[in-house]
């Protein structure tokens, strides 16, 4: 689905007075108005695209305030944007408006190892922070696949995590405080510089995951974690996903929490077998990649403990990498998957549902059934330790009949997930693409309160309108 | 300070219609109206007391809804209460109203080891949950000192933690979802049954720490953690608090995160020396109690790593307990402190400020100065790994001059803490007693938004009015 094609944008030009106020706020060099310049800021890593009416680059908080105030005066949407690596269209300006790019707010303002914290601007990439923290022996746990390009601001906007979340949590667990600009252009400071604090309501975590609809984050106080001394990598292969999922439950019930517990289903394994050089046992119906980190002393015992939990009914093999090359070889299997999927279905639909760990087998079986019913091939892999499953529907978006079947299939996927006490998104967020399904998961009262909260932060509805929450219904008692 | 003395309450009786509706909601046996019956529900573990106009006991969520709706109709305050172990007067009905005791909602509804979660009613005590989870090899990390008596609902209302928070976090880090009744009597479900989920705003953590002002929690989905296999206990003694605090920073910067990192200052050590049998090196100006947990294999190495970090300039001794008796002997020192303090100053003022770890020496030095200036003896101890310091002002509340000096001193303590980028409460919360100081820590915009959020959840202001936030000021732009 494309919201617009490559032809010139259809939105009317912005009011001249607003353009002048944007220019005054950020300077001529930081304002893009020509169609060709604006174009690249209309899309993200979904297939959605709509060009903004203007693009501005801020370099400090006061500029963000000035931009928001200008847009508010003219009731023009303002869409905060990092590097556009999101997958849900959350930064696509489908209603026009001003894209506020934060990529030039890319300074690490403080790195304070004594207090295990960093203060960063939102445009710092995840990798840049890891590099800087790493020099002091620390890291910031959230590690989305796009870490090299994605920004901290984006990580916070979506509450994006990655494999390490199973041990170290998501951004909500690793952020101490925020500075943000609300929809009224006011400066909001939330949270603390400490790991405890109970003064007032928790607005920090309210902002995290709100996809730029409550405020535009301009500074974040992040909690750092000491780098582990060493790591062990294991690969376990199972005859079925049931067997693999039972192993996940066993692994998560013993005291060594892995720092990665990834899985792929039988179809993913088949693909790797056909499209890469990785070798895997025949008859593999499920595979787990497991990493354990910590102090070097005791790490072998920890890995053995995890390996023991991984073994059991239906386990075909458990391999422990002994050298750096062996680690690479084990991960090569997992890394072969994305290219294989791209070869087969370059425009696959990738969902990121979550279910309780013990429900993974029921989910996988249900997906199999849905795929058969709708004639869609489904490949699943993901973060098993969190029950966060990337469900890939291998479809050709140019085939209308297939896309219709895919829509019906997705509908079934979300019902299945919610029936298993799961959630329709674990780390990608809602944006535009999952918006129609949100009301199935959230109750009426929760949605109604979220809308009033949103209105408190952004009374004129200018902050990324039309994203995250479905339209409000009046449920006032 | 007592809000009322033991004479009969001065509030007018509740409207007869409300009493009838409360009776209809919970039954005659669960409604207390006689002065002597209501009395015990007027206080908590602060020295504040004010009798409620009625006490009701709920046993299920629908009753809580009926009680809130009845109170809303008559604009009568409703104050949720667990076991009254709070220290800030947050459950003291100083404006009258109905105390809604949740102590009879004490069922563990689900214990699901496969998915590492428990679903509990709010009246379950912390200890009862630990016992039940322990039988499956799990625990719930928050561990306030009052664990044996305090309820999960109270732990959530205050975001109460304890020593283990340094490794395992606070209730906000260990809760997946909630069911709550809002001020409109509506049923609100927040969160998920999984460790990831980014659908909608994070109302779960917004409710946690809100002291019953946004909703009354009637069910909680808690995240469980596997019990560690073993533990090592160390005691390190320093010639000064500076030296001890520097050791805390060193300990927190290496990869073995202790599961307890407690400290006491020189004055606390002196007290223990005088009022208990514990032996401590002479000239001790600061002491750390450190615990490390995990897999038995590697734990000695982990303890040694921590011990190495604990050693350094100003360190007088580091002792590792080798047997259960030695562990008990080490903790005996720490446990001797509270009785010693009670002997000297039975009605001491106990604050629980937080500062960044590296600022602990500045805080301790500042406290020393403030104590001297105001003629007040201050004894400090607490959760050093989080920078969460229990500051005890040893005063006699019957001495008016001393209490005046204490007020001035406390004023200085909070200014000192905020100047060090700290927070005025780490785990006790605001309630009534810290309410006058909240606006010093929170910015105008944050406070204004908190008030609008509160109004969304409780439009008539009946949920624990007058607690947590200072009165609203109009800051609408």
Mind explaining what this structure looks like?
The structure is a homodimer of 477-residue chains. Chain A has 477 residues and is of the alpha+beta class. Chain A has 4 domains: 16-101, 2-Layer Sandwich (Uridine Diphospho-n-acetylenolpyruvylglucosamine Reductase, domain 2), CATH 3.30.43; 108-226, Uridine Diphospho-n-acetylenolpyruvylglucosamine Reductase, domain 3; 230-338, Alpha-Beta Plaits; 345-435, Alpha-Beta Plaits (2-Layer Sandwich). Helix content of chain A is 34%, strand content 21%. The first copy, chain A, has a 7-stranded antiparallel sheet, with helices on both faces. Chain A has a 5-stranded antiparallel sheet with strand order 5-6-10-8-9. In chain A, helix 1 runs antiparallel to helix 3 (61-73), helix 8 (241-252) packs antiparallel against helix 13 (360-374) and helix 13 runs antiparallel to helix 14 (400-419). Mean pLDDT of chain A is 93; it is low at 4-9. At the A-B interface, strand 9, helix 7, helix 10 and helix 16 of A face strand 9, helix 7, helix 10 and helix 16 of B.
In short:
Two copies of one chain form a homodimer. Chain A has 16 helices and 18 strands.
Number of domains of chain A: 4
Low-confidence stretches of chain A: 4-9
Largest sheet of chain A: 7 strands, antiparallel
Distance between the termini of chain A: 38 Å
Helical/strand content category of chain A: alpha+beta
Oligomer status: homodimer
């Amino acid at each position: 689905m494309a919201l617009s094609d490559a032809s010139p944008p259809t939105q009317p030009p912005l009011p001249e007075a607003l353009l002048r106020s944007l220019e005054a706020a950020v300077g001529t060099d930081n304002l893009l108005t020509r169609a060709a310049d604006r174009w690249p800021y209309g899309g993200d890593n979904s297939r959605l695209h709509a060009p903004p009416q203007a693009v501005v680059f801020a370099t400090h908080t006061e500029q963000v305030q000035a931009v928001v105030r200008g847009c508010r005066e003219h009731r023009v949407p303002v869409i905060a944007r990092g590097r556009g690596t999101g997958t849900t269209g959350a930064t696509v300006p489908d209603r026009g408006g001003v894209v506020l790019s934060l990529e030039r707010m890319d300074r690490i303002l403080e790195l304070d190892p004594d207090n295990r914290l960093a203060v960063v601007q939102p445009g710092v990439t995840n990798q840049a922070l890891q590099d800087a923290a790493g020099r002091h022996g620390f890291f910031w746990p959230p590690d989305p696949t796009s870490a090299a390009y994605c920004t901290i601001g984006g990580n916070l906007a979506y509450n994006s995590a990655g494999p390490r979340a199973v041990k170290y949590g998501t951004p909500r667990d690793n952020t101490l405080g925020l500075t943000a600009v609300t929809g009224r252009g006011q400066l909001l400071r939330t949270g603390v510089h400490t790991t405890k604090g109970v003064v007032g309501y928790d607005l920090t975590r309210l902002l995290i995951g709100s996809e730029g609809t409550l405020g535009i984050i301009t500074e974040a106080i992040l909690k750092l974690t000491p780098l582990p001394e060493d790591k062990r990598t294991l690969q376990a292969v199972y005859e079925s996903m049931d067997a693999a999922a039972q192993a996940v439950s066993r692994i998560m019930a013993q005291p060594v929490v892995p720092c990665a517990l990834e899985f792929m289903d039988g179809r993913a394994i088949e693909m790797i077998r056909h499209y890469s050089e990785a070798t895997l046992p025949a008859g593999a119906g499920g595979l787990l990649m497991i990493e354990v980190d910590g102090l070097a002393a005791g790490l072998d015992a920890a890995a053995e403990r995890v390996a023991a939990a991984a073994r059991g009914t239906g386990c075909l093999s458990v391999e422990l990498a002994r050298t750096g090359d062996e680690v690479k070889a084990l991960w090569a299997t997992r890394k072969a998957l994305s290219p294989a999927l791209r070869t087969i279905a370059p425009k696959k639909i990738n969902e990121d549902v979550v279910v309780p760990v013990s429900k993974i087998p029921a989910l996988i079986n249900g997906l199999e059934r849905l795929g058969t019913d709708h004639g869609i091939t489904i490949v699943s892999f993901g973060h098993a330790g969190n029950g966060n499953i990337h469900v890939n529907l291998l479809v050709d978006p140019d085939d209308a009949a297939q896309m219709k079947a895919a829509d019906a299939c997705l509908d079934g996927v979300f019902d299945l997930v919610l029936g298993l006490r799961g959630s329709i998104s674990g780390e990608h967020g809602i944006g535009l693409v999952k918006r129609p399904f949100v009301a199935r998961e959230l109750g009426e009262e929760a949605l109604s309160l979220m809308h009033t909260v949103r209105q408190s932060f952004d009374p004129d509805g200018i902050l990324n309108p039309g994203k995250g929450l479905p339209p409000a219904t009046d449920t006032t008692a």
